[in-house]
Amino acid sequence: MGSEGPSSVVTVHVTGFKKFHGVSDNPTETIVTNLRQFMEKRGLPKGLVLGSCTILETAGHGAVSQLYKVLQSAISGREKEIGSSATSSPIVWIHFGVNSGATRFALETQAVNEATFRCPDELGWKPQRVPIVPSDGSITRARETKLPVAELTRSLRKMGYDVAPSDDAGRFVCNYVYYHSLRFSEQNGILSLFVHVPLFLTIDEEVQMQFAGSLLDVLASVLH
């Protein structure tokens, strides 16, 4: 990572989710809605710009149609930049999702080409063993993030956070969105990471906001 040079700027776009079945108050909606103001007070790390902050529907098709709009607009913005500097400035997508049974943060290393929803999404869809992208083949197909999850995890642990890498983002909307994002990222030379967070009852809002800010710090460090 580190080969971009001192003049490169990392642009980070962030998404969260609205409420869904069993989770009436999604912490990721709060985190992403408040992140810009929080980082303005806290201070962004040097060489990092916070781009879009988007709240997605907790629904497979609903989230992905919205996701592609913001993904595409980020690419279009990069293409408008002048000169070759555009290609040396990393674009990163961080997708926050809640795992209501979790007791710590999880950085997801991969997504799998399978939609098996344990409950209907917010548009009433409940697929079972359906490929997310049929042209990608089997439901066992996985796509991995190109970000150094082990290094990010180590750095965040040193800051005192209870965080671990994970290779299972589930088969619900979180995995569905992450799979599409990783596929788009690979095709367009950008980077993507999914982060599962617990409920605020488990880790309170203040700590979760600090975690989001620290993740931006660590990304800025790793990508410069």
Detailed description of the structure:
- This protein has 224 residues and is an alpha/beta fold.
- The chain has a single domain, classed as Aminopeptidase (3-Layer(aba) Sandwich).
- It has five helices and eight strands; from the N terminus they run E-H-E-H-E-E-E-E-H-E-H-E-H.
- The chain has helices at 27-42, 60-79, 149-158, 173-188, 205-222; strands spanning 10-17, 48-56, 91-98, 105-108, 110-112, 142-144, 163-166, 191-197.
- Strands 2-1-3-8-4-7 form a six-stranded mixed beta sheet, with helices on both faces. Strands 5-6 form a two-stranded antiparallel ribbon.
- Strand 1, helix 1 and strand 2 (48-56) form a beta-alpha-beta unit.
- Helix 3 crosses helix 5 (205-222).
- The radius of gyration is 17 Å and the shape is globular.
- The chain starts with 9 loop residues before the first strand and ends with a helix.
Which features does this protein show?
alpha/beta; 224 residues; six-stranded mixed sheet; Aminopeptidase
Summarize this, please?
The chain is an alpha/beta fold and 224 residues long. Helix content is 36%, strand content 21%. One of its GO terms (cellular component) is cytosol.
CATH superfamily caption = Peptidase C15, pyroglutamyl peptidase I-like
**What proportion of the residues form beta strands (DSSP E)?**
15-25%
| Lateral arrangement of strands in the main beta sheet | 2-1-3-8-4-7
Dominant shape: globular
Distance between the termini: 7 Å
Q: Kindly provide the name of the CATH class.
A: Alpha Beta
Main sheet summary: 6 strands, mixed
Protein name: Pyrrolidone-carboxylate peptidase
GO molecular function, one term: pyroglutamyl-peptidase activity
Family: Belongs to the peptidase C15 family.
Keywords: Cytoplasm, Hydrolase, Protease, Thiol protease
